[in-house]
Amino acid sequence: MKYGARPARLLPWTGSEGKPCYLLTDGDGPLSRLADVVEATHLDMAEELSDHAAALLADARATPEQLRFMVHRMREALTAVRRVAESRGMRCSLKGARQSDQFRERSICISAAERGSRR
Question: Which domain holds residue 62?
Answer without folding.
Answer: 2-117
